[in-house]
Amino acid sequence: MRREARAFAGAAVVFLLANQMAFGGEKHSKSFAGIASYYDKNYRGRTARGDRYDPTKFTAAHRTLPFGTRLRVTGPNNRSVVVEVNDRGPFIKTRVLDLSYAAATELRMIGHGLVRVTAEVQEPPAAQ
Fold first, then answer.
1. pTM of this prediction?
2. What one-character-per-residue DSSP string does 70-106 give?
């Protein structure tokens, strides 16, 4: 049993080091892909950060990235836009981002509803 515990601990250390090397040692340096949706242009509410939602701004909701994180989001047509995370969501497990109406318009998502995107962290937020 003790030998198995040491082997597991050793494997965990190797995994963590490899993961740190793969991401350049930066905590928020990553990219991801999945399905994105967007807020309706008539939505008028507040974000999880407390901002009033503005359909003309380039913002997004993500489940775990810190508020203020900037993402370059690219759609299937290779159009891209930089958005700032200011909300939590999406609350549907198969989706990775909820985009503002302005961001969705720029990516030409309007009328499609759901689009496969890739997102890259551009700028982790400053430590608070």
1. 0.75
2. EEEEE-TTS-EEEEEEEE----STTEEEEE-HHHHHH
Kindly report, residue by residue over 95-125, the tens digit of the pLDDT. 999 999 999 999 999 999 999 999 999 977 7
Structural domains in the chain plus CATH codes: 26-123 (2.40.40.10)
Measured CA to CA, the distance from residue 36 to residue 112 in angstroms comes to 11
* Burial category of 13 from C-beta neighbours within 10 Å (exposed 0-12, middle 13-18, buried 19 and up): exposed
User: Do strands 31-38 and 115-123 pair parallel, antiparallel, or not at all (unpaired)?
Assistant: antiparallel
> What number of CA atoms fall less than 13 Å from residue 97's CA on the CB side?
34
CB 99 within 8 Å of CB 73 = yes
